[in-house]
Amino acid sequence: MRVRHALLGALAGAALVTGGLAAPAAQAAGSGVAAVTCGNDHWPHHNYDSGSGTVTKSGSAAVHTGPYGDCTTVGYVSEGTRVYYDCYVVNDYNNRWTWVRDAGGSSLGWIYGRYLSDGGATSHC
Fold first, then answer.
1. Average pLDDT by stretches of 10, the chain with 125 residues
2. Which among 107, 22, 100, 111 has a CA at the least distance from the CA of 71?
3. CA 108 to chain centre
C-alpha cells in the first residue's frame, strides 16, 4: 500500500512538473518564467512600419521593456487608444509583440500583439 501511494505521489508530482514546463499561451500575463531577456540591447527596434491600431485589452494593456510579460512594465495604454507601430518580434514562446509609439511619436515599448486591434505591426524588427 505504501508503495502504491508513493508511486501515485511521484506520478502526480511529475504531472505538475511537466505542466509547469509547458509554454504558456500568452506571456503577457507574466507566468513566473525566470529566464527572459529584456531591454533594447537584446531587442532592437526601428520604425519599419507605418501602421497603427488601437488597444483592445479591456481596461488597459501593459507596455514592457521586452517582448515578454515578465519584462518590466513601464506603463499602460488605455483600451481604445491609438498607437503607432515600429515593428514586431516573435519571442521564445512564439508570441508576437509590437514596439509602439504614442500619437506624438514618443517610444512607449512592447505590447503583446493580441492586445492590438489588428495584431500589431506587419514589419519584422
1. 36 32 37 70 88 97 97 97 97 96 95 97 95
2. 111
3. 15
